[in-house]
Amino acid sequence: MKNFHSLVIHHQFNTLPYPEERLLEIAEKIYRAEKIPLRKKTNLILCSDYYIKKLNRQYRNIDKATDVLSFEIGDSDLIGEIYISLERAKVQARRFGITYDDEIIRLFVHGMFHLQGYDHQDGKEREAMESKERKYIKL
Predict the structure, then answer these.
(1) Phi and psi of 77, rounded to 5°?
(2) Do residues 79 and 42 make contact, with C-beta atoms less than 8 angstroms apart?
(3) Of 33, 51, 93, 130, which is least packed with CB atoms within 10 Å of its CB?
């Protein structure tokens, strides 16, 4: 079992599995390569469509489920929180023709770079963010 203490995984949706080892491995690679202090934690919350829809409505005024949400916390010990809907990941994996585990990894990496200040509102930002994501998703 891989152990990387900077990523704390909370699994709220116990009926669907998730690739814990790969998540921890990629988190460690991102932390080291992007020079994120190891003392800073990231919470990863694996949840349902219902739960992520509530968050999306509350914080973004969008009344529908989404695949991933990231919230910067910015205190001294916590970078932020990433919420991934496992139900949505399952549907999207089928749609994109990839494995369920690969889709969870893709969403996690996407969330990590949002926490690092990357965005995809315009073409230049999107290109920079997607370039970073591809680097880690290929691992």
Answers:
(1) -115, -10
(2) yes
(3) 33
Domain count, the chain: 1
Domain CATH number, residue 93: 3.40.390.30
Residue with tokens 């230049």: 124
Cα distance between residue 115 and residue 6, in whole Å: 14
* Number of helices and strands in the chain (H, E): 5, 4
What's the CA gap between 98 and 103, in Å, rounded?
A: 7
Residue 89 burial (C-beta neighbours within 10 Å; 0-12, 13-18, 19+): buried
Rg of the chain over all Cα atoms, to the nearest angstrom: 14
* pLDDT (tens digit per residue) in 1-51: 466 889 999 888 667 888 999 999 999 999 999 999 999 999 999 999 999
